[in-house]
Amino acid sequence: MTVDWWHPDLHGLVVLQGEELIFERYGEGEDYRLNEALGRVRFGPETLHDIRSVSKSVVGLLYGTALAEGAVPEPSASLMEQFPEYGDISGKDALRIEHALTMTLGLHWDESVPYTSIANSEIAMESAPDRYRFILEQPLVQEPGAGWHYTGGASALVGRIIEKGTGLPLEEYADARLFRPLGISSWEWSRGADGVVLAASGLRLAPRDLAAIGRFAMEAPLEPMIKREDGGSYGMQWYVGDGWRGAFGNGGQRLIVFPARNVVIVATAGLYNNDTATVDQLLWNTVIPAMT
């Protein structure tokens, strides 16, 4: 396959069919750990890369693993009962864990502004003295379960439920139950100023290792699932379309799995806080048709 279509903002592209690596190429660009500039890097097979909100989908897999082990409550369980330390927060009794898993909490949350602004709800959460109280105190603007709304705070809640249920810090559980079993030995998971691992956005992985997670996710159960306004579905922190399931992160980070064709596609890019339409068009119009 020729690569005259390569995008200058792509940092890496990996394609697996089954266990076979059928395409791999890397680029060069500015590296970041969230908002921390790390300088210009020539990326390669072992270079860690921010996967941003793809972290959410990894957390969804971890919840599914913990659920299969009987370590966490069922999705239908009360959300507030998992956080008895916030018993003073009222009016949220209708919330269920599944509302966090499907981003249908119905809470006020706005991530439409840049992630450099305190007006962004995720950044405001990171600045709060208690991230979980901040999330749960947000006013209800919609009935829980009524509609999908992008909410990084939902992922933070799921991450904490995993910690409470397993008795392990999120990153240690991930290492023991997901990373090491898949042969992933090099990774980073950024923490907030409060020392809490950033479940919604903080994971750094090499593209090959992210592809291995994609293979793991190929047959992972993603229920409960809800329909989004664009016609797609969302479940267990994964986007689901016709024949594919995907994890998407700020800047052009993409993990797209095609179970029927046994294909996994990983893209990393440097378009942080910018329009990623050109990278997505490249993937969906050129790469995916050629690889699937």
TrEMBL record:
It holds the Pfam family Beta-lactamase. It comes from the Bacteria. Signal peptide: none annotated. InterPro entries: Beta-lactam-related, Beta-lactam/transpept-like, Diverse_Enzym_Activities. Residues 13-268 form the Beta-lactamase-related domain. Transmembrane segments: none annotated. PANTHER family: BETA-LACTAMASE-RELATED (PTHR43283), BETA-LACTAMASE-RELATED DOMAIN-CONTAINING PROTEIN (PTHR43283:SF7). This is CubicO group peptidase (Beta-lactamase class C family).
